[in-house]
């Protein structure tokens, strides 16, 4: 079974541009690029419907965004711990001595 190909955004835009020129049929362009004709037309539809937001990727955060997310989660965990400790301290010191 053939693995699914991943193509860069620029490649997709250029393929659609070639198709929109109308000088050659889509099947010929697709064969030249080594992709299926239906994929080429799907890219064209996506580009027409979404415009600049087309072909944004799988949605996985980039490495620097991921490391920032990890750092913020760690910081949140520490702040929650500190808050819980302070709540317990306030409850302890506000008890009525008997």
Strand and helix layout:
Layout: H1 9-21, H2 26-33, H3 37-50, H4 63-93
Helix pairs in contact: 1-3, 2-3
Q: How would you characterize this protein structure?
A:
The structure is a single chain. This protein has 98 residues and is mainly alpha-helical. It has a single domain, classed as Arc Repressor Mutant, subunit A (Orthogonal Bundle). Helix content is 67%, strand content 0%. The chain has 4 helices and no strands. The protein has helices at 9-21, 26-33, 37-50, 63-93. Helix 2 (26-33) packs across helix 3 (37-50). The chain is rod-shaped, with a radius of gyration of 27 Å. The termini are far apart. The model has no long low-confidence stretch (mean pLDDT 86).
Tell me the β content: under 5%
Q: Structural class of the secondary elements?
A: mainly alpha
Query: What does the average pLDDT come to?
Result: 86
Shape type: rod-shaped
Helix content: 55-70%
- What is the count of distinct domains? 1
Tally of contiguous helical segments: 4
The number of distinct β-strands equals 0
Name the helix and strand elements from N-terminus to C-terminus, one letter apiece.
HHHH
């Amino acid at each position: 079974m053939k693995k699914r190909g991943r193509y860069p955004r620029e490649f997709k835009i250029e393929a659609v541009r070639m198709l929109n020129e109308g000088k050659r049929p889509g099947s010929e362009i697709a064969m030249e690029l080594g992709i299926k004709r239906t994929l080429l037309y799907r890219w064209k539809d996506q580009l027409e419907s979404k415009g600049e937001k087309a072909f944004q990727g799988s949605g996985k955060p980039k490495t620097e965004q991921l490391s920032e997310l990890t750092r913020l989660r760690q910081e949140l965990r520490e702040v929650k711990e500190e808050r819980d400790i302070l709540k317990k301290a306030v409850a302890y010191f506000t008890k009525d001595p008997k």
